[in-house]
Design goal:
Length: 128
């Protein structure tokens, strides 16, 4: 079970990455405010801060693009609807590892999570 907790959904990961970028951007701009006595330093810090915020906008946009490609399935573990990216991902709610590809069985995850039952469920949901 401990391994499951380490692996979180890809969309969630990217989303928290974008959030961190925004915080870093604002922190750097705040640093710019503190350094307003040194004009060039303030300007540089503001520019870097704006860059970080722009980057996070790009990442958010990217998440939007990925979400449209993501496959909606119902998690076999917690039975909540979740989205999968790629062939292997984790449930957004309970972090249950999920796969759509039987070739990956037992490769990235413990084999017990790739049982036929789970896979069939994922596939039939995928076809909707
Ligand atoms: Zn789940």
């Amino acid at each position: 079970m401990a391994e499951n907790l380490v692996y979180s959904s890809k969309i969630n990961k990217i989303r928290s990455f974008a959030l961190i970028l925004i915080f870093v951007g604002f922190a750097i701009m705040y640093g710019g405010l503190l350094a307003k006595k040194i004009e060039w330093l303030m300007l540089i810090l503001f520019l870097i801060g704006i860059l970080f915020i722009l980057l996070s906008c790009v990442v958010y946009f990217w998440i939007g693009m990925l979400s449209t490609k993501a496959v909606s399935i119902v998690c076999p573990n917690c039975e909540k609807p979740t989205k999968m990216l790629g062939r292997v991902d984790a449930c957004m709610h309970c972090k249950q590892p999920l796969t759509l590809d039987k070739d990956l069985e037992g490769m990235e995850f413990d084999e017990k999570y790739n049982k036929r039952k789970y896979r069939k469920q994922a596939k039939s949901n995928n076809k909707r």
